[in-house]
Amino acid sequence: MEYRTLGRTGVQVSTLCLGTDNFADPTPENEAARILDLALEAGINLVDTGDIYADGEGEKIIGRALKANGLRHQTLIATKVDHGRRRPGYSLDDPSLYQPNDYGHSRLHIIRACENSLRRLQTDYIDLYQLHRPSPDIPWDEQLGALSDLVRQGKVRYIGCSTHPSWSVMEAIMVSELKGYARFVCEQPPYNLLDRRIENELVPLCQKHGLGLIAWAPMAMGVLAGRYASSATYPENSRAALRGGFYADRVTENGIKVGIKFSEIAQQLGLTPAQLAILWVKDQPGITAPLIGPRTVEQLNSLIPVKDMSLDDETRAACDALVPAGSVVADFHNTADWMKMQIH
Fold this sequence. Notes:
Blueprint: E1 3-5, E2 12-14, E3 17-19, H1 29-41, E4 46-48, H2 57-69, E5 76-82, H3 107-121, E6 126-132, H4 140-152, E7 156-162, H5 166-179, E8 184-188, H6 202-209, E9 212-215, H7 239-243, H8 245-249, H9 253-269, H10 273-282, E10 289-292, H11 297-303, H12 313-322
Parallel strand pairs: 3-4, 3-10, 4-5, 5-6, 6-7, 7-8, 8-9, 9-10
Antiparallel strand pairs: 1-2
Helix pairs in contact: 1-2, 2-3, 3-4, 9-12
């Protein structure tokens, strides 16, 4: 396994990282634990989760699995504090259950959420704690001040953000430098061949100011892996079928057309489309690592070999011909209120 430096820290991160959004939703705990064990055995050293994944059950599974295998201190745990109302233990269908301080990145919520994540993960520190989506109505002083206190207390080692606009990331860096707060070490955006918009501003920003980039949805939610034949009907157990909503909105006819041509390139290389999708993201400029989010052990085993592959210039050019640099054919920023462009 190759390792890359995370931003301007001294931390070494595997070039494939494990995403766990499928843990408990739908992957059962025994298989999820097996996935985690095999990923660590293969050399993956960063496991990414979030406090809203399966209403907190994802963190619990990771905590129990690391306690069982004894590999906590070999593992970088990255988790997130969500900005929205999808709090663990709350029903999305009953807004009356929401309390006014159970969402948004206030000092109160950040510290409370961190304590809850520590309990679910059965650990006394989080390696990378990330703000999940921006809270533009809350000053950076409050957000970064709370995160800095968690770092000073030893509960958090490093901080980052996920799915923030580039101008907001730059704001946070500026405030940290001016006020002496802990500084973001990475951003976690959506990035795949169907949605390349981060190349326009975010990637150059992170390269210039020393932030890592850990990309989610590198397979475009399976569209680049050939899972979808139509934007009107979805395969059983696909995210579009199981979760609907903004997941289904990411499956577009134009994206599927690109996916078909992309599959042909993969076939010519003797790769699966999923392998090529991960490889393409892994070897793009500025990227620290893509998150692979296998639903089954079989899916994990099929993706692990990508760690030893390199993207050649001819294949890179063939992919660029499908979707040019900086452009988009399917909207993977559709959970970001700040991204106004609509893709159909």
